[in-house]
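Lab manual, section 2.4: Encoding a predicted structure.

Procedure: take the sequence of the chain (174 residues), apply the prediction step described in section 2.3, and record the output as structure tokens. A sample record is shown.
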Amino acid sequence: MSRRYYYLTPEDREVAKSNGISEETLKYRVGRAGWDIDRAITQPTRKIIRTRIEHLKLARANGVSADAFAKRLKLGWALEEAANTPVLSQKERTKRASLVNQKYDPKDIAEAEANGISAERFRERMRSGWSAERARTTPTMTQKQSLQEALKSSPWRDIAEMQFNLNTQHLERR
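Recorded output:
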């Protein structure tokens, strides 16, 4: 038997109607989607579409956009959950993302801050290869202390020390 693709008989329309397929759906399937008539009049419509439309209306009433609702379904959310869970504010999304993407333990950062070391300084030390213990407990040096440490290890220590002393005396006079 050859497949029929174009002309819908009144009998075809009756069979489709008895199978719960609307005239509009039948015309779409045959005329636009290119289905053969036998398949178009017998394959049931997807019931989930109707429930999705109802849930989409519920989602809109709950402040969830159609795009957000569709994305949630694509991610595997249940219909009820996708429609009823409110959309997070930008601030809340950023907060959650930062918690998920944290590289260093918040306890280490808190301890470092308690020791007078800023969170950024702690991160900088960790990126430089310091251990967490050393990064959170070693106090930060002033610029003067840092220069003195650098001078101690310099091969030009004597010359640099004289220059350093001259500069600090000049600064102290101001």
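Check your result against the sample. Residues 157-173 form the longest helix (17 residues).
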